[in-house]
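so my prof wants the structure for this chain in the tokens format not the other one, which i didnt know existed until like an hour ago. anyway here's the sequence
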Amino acid sequence: MSLRLSTVILPHRRWNEGGRETWQRAEQLGFHTGYTYDHLSWRTFRDGPWFGAVPTLTAAAGVTDRLRLGTLVTSPNFRHPVPLAKELITLDDISGGRVTLGIGAGGTGFDATALGQDPWSPRERADRLAEFIPLLDRLLTEDSVSYEGDFYSAHEARNIPGCVQRPRLPFAVAATGPRGLKLAARHGQAWVTTGDPKLYENGTPEQSLQALRGQIDKLTDSCAAIGRDVSTLDRILLTGFTPDRGRPLTSLDAFVDFAGRHRELGFTELVIHWPIPDSDFAAEQKVFEQIAMEAPAQLG
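here's what i got, hopefully its the right format
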């Protein structure tokens, strides 16, 4: 099974102070997709520069030709399906059909309260995502949509001419729970995981592999329940959040070993963070670029 290699570029640099060059370099290095985080602010970067995901991807579309572009991930925390659909159709048009929407339920970080609301419970986040994804699916595939739900509404929302990609741009659904996995099986073209967060601090790489195997088994069951072959769904691992942390980026051999073990589990795409000095994503740029250029050939 071939394994694609992608990168996630955090939107923390001004476009004219390294931002543009980073996205162009990602294309030169041969990455399959360049993703960015869709947050209003995020973790230790909260008090520093941080830019919007959709404008960043739009700018990246204008300075690249082949690199796919996407979010990891967009959530209902501060998004509404109606304006989001319009932005995505526009981005897909500008990029010539190179956009993937990573989408998930969101969490309890800064996005959860930035609009002045109390953080939603896990149950409400799941309820909202279960309404958000099907409505967004309709908005991206139908010329006019009206809908009244518990959380979201649309009244004759127009989205003409629709996406360049048909029937719409692909969804990469981030999920580990049963309801999210069902959404991935029904609406996703890909599934995304970061592993089991409970293992990050004190778990082992072997325990992480076992947990990921269990997640893929549950995804397989969710697909089977609706008559879908799980092989028709890409399986994406966003790295950096398993007990391995940054070790896979310390050398080409370390990464090839890490990637090979996860390919054997059934992953079709690995996403590695573009290095950021003095952060959780610090790595040697030279080694990172060697991995980008040489690892795919070694992995077949």
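also thought this was worth mentioning. Strands lie at 4-8, 33-36, 68-74, 99-103, 144-148, 153-158, 171-174, 190-193, 234-238, 269-273.
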